[in-house]
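Data card: per-record layout.
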Amino acid sequence: MTYLPQIKILVPSAQVSSYTTGVLSLPSAKSAFVGLSSRALIAGGENDGSVFRNTIDYFDITTTGNATDFGDLTLARSYVSGASSNTRGVFGGGYTGSARTTIDYVTLATTGNADGFGDRAANAQIRASCSNMTRGMFSNELDTDYITIATTGNAIDFGDRTVNANLGAGCGSSTRGVFAGGIVSGSYNNTIDYFTIATTGNATDFGDLLAGNYVMCGLSSDTRGVFANGNPGGLSNVIQYVTIASTGNATDFGDTLNAQLNSSGTSNTTRGIIAAGEVSNGSNIIEYITIATTGNATDFGDLTQARRACAAVSGSHGGL
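The structure for this 320-residue chain is written out next.
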């Protein structure tokens, strides 16, 4: 009689790095998603405050090199914010001489023009956003609203930040959205707040930035949130970070290549991307950092256009 060996198949959770028996090694679900979703998109922006862009660029976060044209937004605009799952990128709000409610979306794995998604609850130029696999959040002044990324429709009220801050920055893990800085009654604010993404309700105080700052960019791994550049009273090259699962003040990380504001940030679980920004009228520079370490940013490549106040999304950021 011949006996065939039994093979036991386990489906690993996103928290398990691998399961090995003999020579069989199964990667985690999360690592599999990251391998398929390392594309970053940079969308919209402006050059000199009057030339608004609808351009969407893309590149692979795991490599270095110049960006390639992806398609166009439904509306050329700056101060647009991004949220994404591992399949869909969503771009909300913006500015075209006045604030806009527009939300549009793309499928990350393809190329082509964006489609209409819905509207924000109020006209808003917003720079603070975050997302997990299910929800995207957009925050400006006190108001924070959310969308369900897999569907289309209008944004729904989520809750309020602890401060009435406009033009801050956001990032997050799969459970927690972290929003930092902004301008409050003409003053640069250093407040960091957090929300629990799966619920609705008002934010809770997290800690403080190194200094009051606004028009920064935010990005994250699943453990560390990073804020870069901005205007704490002049153009800044400062990168700072927090540990998302805890609370506390930000810590210095390093410096970007240029002091600038209105840059855009996204990431995979390892590498953070900082792109575009206002050095003069706009920048086409893409930089990167290794999120788990500290240190200065390194040149990655160039966008197809110099611009500032763009949205940035990816299919493998810290919220996924």
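Known properties of this structure: The radius of gyration is 19 Å. Residues 37-314 form a domain with the Neuraminidase fold (CATH 2.120.10.80).

See the next section for split statistics.
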